[in-house]
Design goal:
Length: 73
């Protein structure tokens, strides 16, 4: 099975988002991301450019409100 995933940061007024296409799941049903720079679709930018808190330890994830949409291909 393959899925598309859209992650939107609702904590930011601009609502930046990234889209991952064609992601597979493992035998336990978890979506597999190869690594943090894994082919997002957003004007060719890397996820850490669109969502800088991904790699900035001073801006932890628990301060974020994320919307994660998963659609079956």
């Amino acid at each position: 099975m393959r899925f598309n995933i859209k992650i939107t940061d609702l904590s930011d007024l601009e609502n930046p988002f990234i889209i991952y296409e064609n992601k597979r799941i493992d035998s336990d049903g978890y979506i597999i991301f190869d690594n943090i720079v894994d082919s997002p679709i957003y004007n060719g930018a890397q996820p850490r450019t669109i969502l800088p808190w991904l790699t900035n330890p001073r801006d932890p994830l628990e301060k974020r409100t994320l919307k994660i949409e998963v659609t079956y291909m």
